[in-house]
Design brief:
single chain; 323 residues; alpha/beta; Inosine-uridine Nucleoside N-ribohydrolase, Chain A; 9-stranded mixed beta sheet; two-stranded antiparallel ribbon; 38% helix
Length: 323
């Protein structure tokens, strides 16, 4: 039985890999891609999403909806210093390609009304679209089967400031709304989980990139800039939290340890803006999320390697793609 999902994304680097899993995994039923302001410029991340669809041979098969172009109450902060253009310099002729006219927030509400309790939402960017959907329709969480969130750190360091992971830092106000809304939430935190179990060395990256498919070559080139950045700040490999988030929805057998937490996000202090406070059950707080603490790292790597080796015929030529 296939797993219906919507991917809410700020498409750059590992977001592209996450979308590819939603397209290529036989158990996935990717209903839509919704775009939210995050990693790179909004127009660029939209191009990245269409190019990802194209390399999978799926251009025109999955609707793309444009969502919130800035956080709820704050100025947008990018991660272009980490990801570059988010596409490894690859480009594609986008003539004649248009996103859906419907706003992403309205699409989230409509799609879940059409299939209540059926669709899983995977949020791998700032939570602006999800929060705005809650604000517009407070019954939205009741219709979402599960909400998988890539964000925060589990009582650990951040990756944009000492305190905060990028997605929660960019729109902490949205994160607070979402964690208070009543979703069935699973959190995939950046630290320590990603750094511990979803980090691919240069040797790993070379193995995946040698898969012989257009997708494998795309993976290697799209992830190169982030690999360089991660190594420059002392992380020994390329981090893959977004693709891990999709993988854990589709293959929960990858999870080896998780626990219930009361999660809240700091939105008032500039020093700790976006900090995710995750209470592990001793503070008298009601749990509102399951937090993943460990996964089978070897199995995750094998899954990505196999998935990226999937043969495809790109819908349009990807300019600069090495074969």
């Amino acid at each position: 039985m296939k797993i219906p999902l919507i991917i809410d994304t700020d498409t750059a680097q590992d977001d592209c890999v996450a979308i590819l899993l939603g397209l290529l995994d036989p158990v996935a039923d990717l209903r839509a891609i919704t775009m939210v302001a995050g990693n790179v410029g909004f127009e660029q991340q939209t191009k990245n999403a269409f190019m990802t669809l194209s390399v999978a041979g799926a251009l025109g098969e999955c609707p793309v909806f444009l969502g919130c172009r800035r956080p709820m109450v704050r100025a947008w902060v990018s991660a272009e210093n980490v990801h570059g253009d988010g596409a490894g310099g690859l480009t594609m002729d986008n003539s004649g390609i248009e996103p859906e006219a419907e706003h992403a927030v309205d699409a989230l509400l409509r799609l879940t009304k059409e299939s209540p309790g059926e669709i899983n939402v995977v949020a791998i960017g700032p939570l602006t679209n999800i929060a705005m959907a809650v604000i517009k329709d407070p019954t939205f969480p009741d219709r979402v089967k599960s909400l998988y969130i890539m964000g925060g750190s589990n009582n650990a360091r951040g990756n944009i400031t000492a305190a905060a992971e990028f997605n929660f830092y960019v729109d902490p106000d949205a994160a607070k709304v979402v964690f208070d809304a009543g979703f069935d939430i699973t959190v995939i935190p950046w630290e320590p989980l990603t750094i511990q179990d979803a980090l691919f060395s240069r040797q790993h990256m070379a193995e995946i990139g040698a898969g012989g498919s257009p997708v494998a070559s795309f993976f290697a080139q799209v992830c190169e800039a982030t690999l360089d950045f991660d190594e420059s700040v002392g992380i020994p490999g390329s981090s893959h939290p977004d693709s891990l988030t999709v993988a854990l929805l589709l293959h929960p057998e990858l999870i080896t340890k998780s626990a219930l937490y009361a999660v809240d996000v700091e939105a008032d202090s500039e020093l700790t803006r976006g900090y995710s406070a995750m209470s592990w059950g001793i503070h008298g707080l009601k749990a509102n999320a399951r937090v993943i603490e460990a996964v089978d790292a070897a199995a995750f790597f094998g899954y990505i390697k196999e998935s990226m080796a999937t043969p495809t015929t790109p819908s349009r030529e990807i300019l600069g793609l090495k074969r």
